[in-house]
């Protein structure tokens, strides 16, 4: 005969096991770490490393990243009208990876869903345009709002921008 255990008991046991693993990892992973409140010792210089120089000047660390902008961010149109959206990639800190862009849209409480792969742009990142023809509205619906999420992925960076299209009869 197979004994059944309650889902709550199984969840508690999993939490206990995971907590034990985290505690053990914390105890064994920090063997070489300095005690709290004390700075870590600097490694001894090697022939290839050179001698560290303390100048007192702050060091600027620039991360390679990008941002995106979409214009217009919101538009109101009639069914059948065309709206041109323009996406621009703004590199920061010498970012130069290709950026892949996807748009996902929902409307009417999730009844309407649509995804479009707009492709990939590479440096010098020309503007990416996307023309949208506003669809006709269902019977008895006078206004619909389409919420779109533009997702741009490049390197290890993901940026999103929200765009809204209001369709009115």
Task: Explain the overall architecture.
- The chain is flat.
- It is mostly beta strands and 169 residues long.
- It has a domain at 66-168: Immunoglobulin-like (Sandwich).
- A five-stranded mixed beta sheet has the order 2-8-7-4-5, with no helix packed on it.
- The longest helix is centred in the first third of the chain and has 23 residues, at 7-29.
- The protein has one helix and eight strands; from the N terminus they run αββββββββ.
- The protein has one helix at 7-29; strands at residues 65-71, 74-77, 82-92, 99-107, 112-121, 128-133, 143-154, 157-168.
- Mean pLDDT is 81; it is low at 45-51.
CATH architecture of the domain at 66-168: Sandwich
List the secondary-structure elements in sequence, H or E.
HEEEEEEEE
The number of helical segments is: 1
Q: Widest sheet: strand order?
A: 2-8-7-4-5
- Report the biggest beta sheet as strand number plus sense, adding barrel if it closes: 5 strands, mixed
Shape: flat
Low-pLDDT parts are 45-51
Number of strands: 8
Classified by CATH, the class of the domain at 66-168 is Mainly Beta
Helix/strand-derived category reads mainly beta
| C-alpha-based Rg, rounded | 27 Å
Rounded mean pLDDT is 81
**Which percent band covers the strand fraction?**
35-45%
CA(first)-CA(last) distance: 66 Å
CATH fold descriptor of the domain at 66-168: Immunoglobulin-like
As a percent range, the share of helical residues equals 10-25%
């Amino acid at each position: 005969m197979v004994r059944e255990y309650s889902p709550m008991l199984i969840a508690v046991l999993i939490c206990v096991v995971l907590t034990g693993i985290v505690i053990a990892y914390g105890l064994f992973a920090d063997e070489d770490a300095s005690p709290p409140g004390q700075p870590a010792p600097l490694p001894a210089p090697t022939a290839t490393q050179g001698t560290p120089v303390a100048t007192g000047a702050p060091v600027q660390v620039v991360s390679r990243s990008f941002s995106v902008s979409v214009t217009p961010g919101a538009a109101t149109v009639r069914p059948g009208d065309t709206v041109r959206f323009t996406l621009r990639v703004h590199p920061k800190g010498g970012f130069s990876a290709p950026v892949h862009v996807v748009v996902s849209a929902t409307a009417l409480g999730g009844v309407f869903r649509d995804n479009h792969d707009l492709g990939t742009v590479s440096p010098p990142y020309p503007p990416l345009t996307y023309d949208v023809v506003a669809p006709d509205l269902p019977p008895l619906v006078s206004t619909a709002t389409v919420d779109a999420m533009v997702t741009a992925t490049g390197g290890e960076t993901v940026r999103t921008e929200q765009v809204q299209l209001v369709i009115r009869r």
